User: Which sequence fits this backbone?
C-alpha cells in the first residue's frame, strides 16, 4: 500500500495507490491533509482557503481566486501545482493575448505538405490563468470549451487535454483599471470562487520576519503524482455516498437562488451538481463515506455566489450575492443529519 510522503520527508510516493474499500478514504484524508500542510508552508495562515482550493482539485473542478493584488492568489495556485508531479503551465492574461496563444495553432509543414497542431499552454494537468479578467472577452472565451469538456477544437479537429485537468484562475476585482468582467457562461464553469484576503496580524508578522529564510515555492517537496490525484478523484466520486435528502437539499438551495427577488439570474443545474461534487470531497477529507447537510451548507457560498446575477435594485441597495445566499441558507430547511447515515 502506498505511503504518502510528509512535507518534511521531501520524498515522492512511488506508484499509484491500489485501493481496497477500507483504505481508500483513509488514504484520501492523508493525501488531502499532507497536501494542505505543504501548500500552507508558503500560503501562511490561510488553511481554510487552502482546503477549499484542494476540494476543487479533488472534485476536478476549476477554481477562481478573486482578490486585490498582493494577497497571494498566484502563490496559492503555484504552490498547488508545485506539490504535484504533473504538467503545469502558467498563462499571463493581457489585453493583447489572442485565443490561439492559449489553445495552440495548426502550422503548415512544407516538408510533409500537411498541417501539424502545435498545442498551446492549456494542454497541461494544471493551468494557472493569471489575472484572467485582463484579457478581452474574445480571448476569455477560448477557455469555455476546455473548461467544460476537457478538449479543444482547432480547425475542426478535436484535441483532448490530459487528465486530471484543472484551471486555477486569478482575477482582480472588476472595478480595478484594465479589467473586463467575466461572462456569466464562463463564471458558471468554475466549480467555486474564493477570496484569499489579507493575513491576520500574527501571520503577516511571521511572513515579514521570515522573509529571508521562509520556504519558497521552488523548494516545496512533491507530495503526489498526477496519477495519485486521478485515483483520489475517483475515490471521492465512487466511495462517498450522497443520500437523497442531502442531494435534495443542495438542489433546493440552488433553485431558491432563482426564486429570490434580489436575483435576475440564479444558479443553474451545474451549480447544484457542483455543490454535491464538492460536498463528496469534503466528506472524504474527513474520512466519511457519506455527505452531510453541513458539507453542503459550508460550501454553498464558494460554489454558488459567483453564479448569481443581482437585480439593479439589489445592487443599488448594497445587497451582495453572499447576502442573498445567507438569507436562503436560513430559509431553506436542512434535513436531519441522520437521514444521510444509511451508507456506513
Assistant:
Amino acid at each position: 500500500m502506498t505511503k504518502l510522503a510528509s512535507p518534511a520527508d521531501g520524498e515522492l510516493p512511488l506508484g499509484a495507490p491500489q485501493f481496497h474499500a477500507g483504505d481508500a478514504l483513509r488514504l484520501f484524508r492523508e493525501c488531502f491533509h499532507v497536501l494542505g500542510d505543504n501548500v500552507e508552508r508558503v500560503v501562511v495562515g490561510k488553511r481554510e482557503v487552502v482546503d477549499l482550493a484542494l476540494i476543487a482539485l479533488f472534485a476536478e473542478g476549476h477554481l477562481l481566486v478573486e482578490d486585490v493584488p498582493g494577497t497571494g492568489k498566484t502563490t496559492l495556485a503555484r504552490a498547488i501545482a508545485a506539490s504535484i508531479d504533473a504538467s503545469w503551465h502558467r498563462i499571463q492574461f493581457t489585453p493583447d493575448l489572442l485565443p490561439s496563444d492559449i489553445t495552440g495553432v495548426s502550422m503548415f509543414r512544407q516538408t510533409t505538405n500537411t498541417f501539424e497542431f502545435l498545442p498551446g499552454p492549456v494542454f497541461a494537468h494544471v493551468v494557472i490563468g493569471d489575472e484572467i479578467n485582463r484579457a478581452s472577452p474574445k480571448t476569455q472565451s477560448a477557455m469555455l470549451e476546455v473548461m467544460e469538456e476537457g478538449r479543444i477544437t482547432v480547425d475542426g479537429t478535436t484535441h483532448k487535454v490530459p487528465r486530471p485537468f484543472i484551471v486555477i484562475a486569478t482575477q482582480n476585482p472588476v472595478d480595478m483599471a484594465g479589467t473586463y468582467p467575466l461572462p456569466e457562461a464562463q463564471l458558471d464553469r468554475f466549480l467555486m470562487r474564493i477570496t484569499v484576503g489579507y493575513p491576520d496580524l500574527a501571520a503577516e508578522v511571521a511572513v515579514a520576519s521570515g522573509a529571508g529564510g521562509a520556504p519558497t515555492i521552488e523548494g516545496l517537496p512533491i507530495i503526489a503524482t498526477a496519477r495519485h490525484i486521478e485515483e483520489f478523484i475517483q475515490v471521492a466520486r465512487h466511495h462517498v455516498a450522497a443520500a437523497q435528502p442531502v442531494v435534495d437539499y443542495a438542489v433546493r438551495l440552488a433553485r431558491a437562488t432563482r426564486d429570490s427577488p434580489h436575483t435576475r439570474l440564479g444558479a443553474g443545474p451545474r451549480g447544484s451538481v457542483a455543490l454535491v461534487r464538492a460536498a463528496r470531497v469534503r466528506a472524504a477529507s474527513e474520512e466519511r463515506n457519506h455527505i452531510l447537510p453541513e458539507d453542503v451548507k459550508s460550501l454553498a457560498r464558494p460554489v454558488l455566489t459567483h453564479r448569481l446575477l443581482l437585480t439593479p435594485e439589489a445592487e443599488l441597495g448594497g445587497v451582495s450575492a453572499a447576502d442573498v445566499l445567507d438569507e436562503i441558507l436560513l430559509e431553506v430547511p436542512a434535513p436531519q443529519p441522520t437521514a444521510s447515515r444509511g451508507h456506513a
